[in-house]
Amino acid sequence: MLKKERQAYILHQVNLHNKVLSSLLSQEIRVSEDTIRRDLQELADEGKIIKVHGGALSHSFNEVYYPTDNVYSQDHKKIIANKAAALIQNGMFVLTSGGTTIIELARALPRQLKATFMSGSIPAILEYMQHPSIDVIMIGDRISKSSKITIGAEAITKIKQINADLCLLGINAIDLKHGTTDNDWEVVQLKKAMIQSAQKIVCLTISEKINTLQPIHICDIQHIDVLITELPPDDPKLKPYTDAGIQVL
Known about the structure:
Elements: H1 3-17, E1 19-21, H2 22-29, H3 33-45, E2 50-52, E3 55-57, H4 74-85, E4 93-96, H5 100-108, E5 116-119, H6 122-128, E6 135-138, E7 142-144, E8 149-151, H7 153-160, E9 164-170, E10 173-175, E11 179-182, H8 185-196, E12 198-204, E13 216-219, E14 226-228, H9 239-243, E15 247-248
Parallel strand pairs: 4-5, 4-9, 5-6, 9-12, 12-14, 14-15
Antiparallel strand pairs: 1-3, 2-3, 7-8, 10-11, 11-13
Helix pairs in contact: 2-3, 4-5, 5-6, 7-8
């Protein structure tokens, strides 16, 4: 892979997953981590990514207030958000992760909706606070500067005390064999606790992340109740998930 092609691949992965690890990119592209680090530095110098220890972040992921445009695959995420918003009913207790798709969900909530939203994601909390009719509960603890989300034992303990009607997870990768996976250890621990603390688990993802794999396991496929993408439910790419017993929207 030529340098230009390699850097284009890296930039795409950053936009797709919001965060990438140098070690994983090294394995995928089959070059040394030193080469990846140099590529990341060049991309950062060009203002295309934010280089951090062990990898890189997208600019949108690093913002506390996510931009209303220039988010990767934003039109698809808006479709997903509208589908997810239709699942939420008055009086529900809803537990959510963070991420750009969840932000679009927050912006898509009907003005008349009266529900309670619980999250440790600072950008998500700020969006929920703009809604006139929903109550907001912040799940607090130590804050991850890169993920803009509360992490740690106290946050996990608080999540385990919740009995939510819905858990809405923005996910980084999903396939039938490995279930949902991610690349951030501390965020994965939060998502595992969220899954245990809700009656129904809803995963939100653009279709580009379907049949992909990240290094850290979150949950097996049978723990997912609903999968929402921008695709129509009868799209052939989604049929294996329907066959596995998941409701696909």
